[in-house]
Design a protein that fits this description.
It holds the Pfam family SBP_bac_6. One of its GO terms (biological process) is thiamine transport. GO terms for molecular function: thiamine binding; thiamine pyrophosphate binding. By secondary structure, this protein is an alpha+beta fold. It contains 13 helices and eleven strands. The protein folds into two domains: 175 residues, Periplasmic binding protein-like II (D-Maltodextrin-Binding Protein, domain 2, 3-Layer(aba) Sandwich), CATH 3.40.190.10; 143 residues, D-Maltodextrin-Binding Protein, domain 2 (3-Layer(aba) Sandwich). The two termini are 31 Å apart. It is globular, with a radius of gyration of 20 Å. The chain is 33% helix and 15% strand.
Length: 383
Amino acid sequence: MIILPTAHRILPRAAAVAASALVAVGLAACAPPEKESSGGDTESGVKVSEATSAEDFGGMDKLVEAAKAEGELNVIALPPDWANYGALISAFEDKYGIKVNSAQPDASSQDEINAANQQKGKSSAPDVFDLGQSVALANTSMFAPYKVATFDDIPAEYKDADGKWVNDYGGFMSIGFDTSKVPPVTSVEDLLKPEYQGKVALNGDPTQAGAGFSGVLMVAVAQGGSADDIAPGVEFFSKLKQAGNFLPVDPTPATIESGQTPVVIDWNYLNATESKKVPSWQVLVPENAPVAGYYYQAINSGAPHPAAARLWQEFLFSDEGQNLYAAGGVRPVRADAMIAAGTEDKAAFADLPVVHGPVTNPTPEQTEAATKYLADNWAKAIG
């Protein structure tokens, strides 16, 4: 087993993670309907909503100018403690003087898509998405292609060739547990023991949330399954339910700190943050089931602030943005290129965990098949 240190944040999903380097429902529904904005034209004559690079604006300075003119950016499902998004949002606001409206920070990936559909044509619609793989790949028709200045630094397997989506940060699936309330967890199998009755929570519905999906995959791998066979994971949760150990509560920092969810299956960087407030909280990445993954960053094709949405992407994939991700305990997608160029925050990168041995990271095709299996079987398993 690998018990990761919890004195600092640790790390999260990709297509071929190197073993040695791993890697709203309604936004302010009171907003009045508006004509969907195209943001006007850029200096090159391209509509802002159709700009595919900073060059279409006449360069980065012109993009900044257009974004500042819009003055706002709408984000959704970005908890401040998730991947250091609190610091990222503050840094973006300070750097550009653009107000960031953060809606429903605890929403799921599917909630992000629902919000974009429900708020389409309104000034409150999300400008950008940060999504789990299965939801992202099922909704690419909603994304506007855009290539950031550092696009070539990003390996091909971590981006759409046209820039419709780009992986931004990643980590490992883990089990967090409060040793003041339960015995130390040494394996997935431990969770079936009577000592964990009514205590095991999964972060999100795996048919809608990326963390929940990867949590079931981690359990499946530990039970002899694989990215091609998630069934053992669903069967295990069915056993957890039958044993009375599965706790149907979406964990949050509040539920962990109150003791309501003493065992949580979630990304290791999220679990690790809890040790700051719960000294008895520990984090385990099962040695026999390391599951990794990256999240997907994309621009809403109906973004009400299309220039600000594009500037946000530029910021996230810049050295500054990527180093802020690393400071939050997640592995930035440009990590290898930054290390080669010497632009990484060495202290933050040194804290990122390394898992030796084969790492499971589903391909889009595997994710699609597993998602269908979950849609057909998850509710029956835990119902």
